[in-house]
Amino acid sequence: MYNQLENDSEDQQLDIKAILFRYLNYWPYILACAVIAMLVAFMYLRYIPDSYTTTAKVKILSEKEATNLSLDLDKILGKGNVNLENERAVLESYRLNKQVVDLLNLQVSYFQSGRVKQSEVFNPPFTLVYAPEADTANTALQFEVTLNARGYQLKNLGTEETLDVPTFYFDTPTAQFPFTIKPTTAGTIVPGKNPVYTVSIASESNATQRLVNGVQIATDGKSSDILRLSLNSTNKEQAQAILNTLIEVYTDDGILDRQEVSKRTIAFIDERFQYLATELDSIEVAKGNYKQGNNISIFEADAESILAKRAVKDEQLFEVETQLLLADVLQKSMANNDNFDLLPANIGLNSGAINDLVGDYNTAILEYNRWKASAGDSNPKVKILKQTILDLNANIGSSLRGYKNQLEQTVKQNKRAQYSAQQSFETLPNKEKILRSIEREQLLKENLYLLLLQKREEAAITMAVTAPNVKVIDYALTNGTPVAPKRKIIYLGAFLIGILVPVGILYLKFLTNTKIYTGRDIEAINPNSPILGEIPSIPNAKDLLRDSAGNSQTEEAFRTLVHNLNFMYTKKETEGGRVIAVTSSVKGEGKTTASFNVAQTYFQLKKSVLLVGADLRNPQLHPFINETKETAGLSNYLSDFDTNWQDLVLSRNGDTNRFDIFLSGPIPPMPAVLLSSQRFKDFIAEARTQYDYVIIDTAPTVLVADTLTFADQADFTAYVVRSGVTEKALIEFSKKLVQDKKIPNLGYIVNDLDFRGAHGYGYNYGYGYGYSADPVETPWYQFWK
Question: Which residue ranges form the domains of the chain, and what is each CATH number?
């Protein structure tokens, strides 16, 4: 068991070695492919621009970023409370990137032509702005701009149309040139060493999508609130400008989002201001109309005025009634005054005329009484005074009556006024209620107006001081080491491609190859038949016999073959010498050369040998001894019964042995009939008795059945296959001949093996000849053949 495993291991190693040598045989081509691949990689790296990585870092701030002490569980656990995926989606959004494209005019790409390649330029001396409304020609948007001393020469690379612009300002887009041009800085442009620029214009959507795909955004840690923006570009300035602009646009977008609430608040308050102003105006008008309709100016003052008026009316009524009572008292006093008594004077009447009349009356009474006491009633003076008193009494009474009438009218007026004041005072609560309702509504509107005005100011202040929701940690920085192309990887890849491509081609060649190369290939198909020998290449097989030194390697191969043939005879079946038939499947496999060299090898081993050319249809033995096909031989002997075969044999005798050659002779009309005749069998039997070895060069077994007619007469059949020529299917054919017992005893000779190891053994056997003609050397560049 151990020995079996050891043998299997050795076989496996031999297999690996065989495969290795099979490929190494083509090492010049593999090396050439590797060198070509490395040269292509060198030229590629020589002219492709380096790409650098530009990165920027921003921190996304929360609404309450560290403004108070909070026991937020997420903060305690070290987790950010910002949804970075949302912010990342915003940064990657088409909307923001479109703004960057518009701000930096990324639709337009500038390239400056060099000696070999074009390099992209970010800040050319002119600025080209695409005008899509003028693009009606639907041509390729690629242009060539040549800077002249005083203008431009424009060329549409799609239509080859040109246009000369006399100034550095082109403001009239056309269908062929749908853009405007102006200097990047005001003034003239110096053309410089290379004034030719190629300008490519992409659509806005393509430019934006290219930017979206180019900018890579990732978190700067698992629990970090920091986003890392990166962009690979061949132009450092452009990459830095793109990332910085994207950060600015994102910052402004966040500010605008939060300012939108304040703007909406201000807009809402402005709308409410218009409504409140109208409401307040209507309330003021209603309040004025109500006050005017109800004679109200200031409610408290009006109420106080009404109370004051009422008090005045009460006092006036009281005074008038007092005067009326005093007038009644005076009037009653006069009614009871029959004796000319004095009337009360200054009792409080406000009528000066009455008081004067009362005063005159009392004076007259006093004078009357004095005169009456001194002069008596009949005194004329007394009479005059009495009459005066009577007149005064009448006047007083008349005045009192008139005064009382006046007082009564006044009382009535005062009572009416008092009633009116009382009515006005009684309506005050209702008026006050209505007025208070109007004033409350007015006050509510005014307070609301003031509140909204305050909120409007707060919103305006909030909008003015809105802080960004992002903190820039690092603006765009470009790494000085290029990230692409990766030179080591490209060289390694080129080397591997240079190796793998030819190896792959060889693998396909070997995989699809149905040829026989080594004895191992034959054993895989027909393991029951032995491999007699493997013959190396013979550069010129026809000169081998004439070469006294010979080919030592080839001679050794044939000695080994002859040695193996000797071991194929396990018992002596017949008397005399050995008969060996040498055949093949088709022509061109080297059976005639093998037959000649086997015969020659036996001859060198001091054996007597007869080499018979039994391929009557296509004889090839005669060139080896400089004879022609017309030389008499086997066909003459078989067709002419009077001919002795020994007379037709060509001898190459040695000192103690001989080497005779019996050629095929002229080609007969029916070779199979001649070879299956009894005369040919008798010939073989007779030749056995005279020679140690009879070598028969037969016809191919696939093409004709000549060989099979006398195969049973041979002691052993050597079946020649040619490495790299014989198909595997032909081995199946020979195997079937053995199985059907058409050829009883068969062994294989592998001819033309690659001694340099192309087929797996580290040595090359190969003949440079064919069956019917000399071989054609394969050109070096057709290594696959």
Answer: 1-48+486-512 (no CATH), 84-237 (no CATH), 519-751 (3.40.50.300)
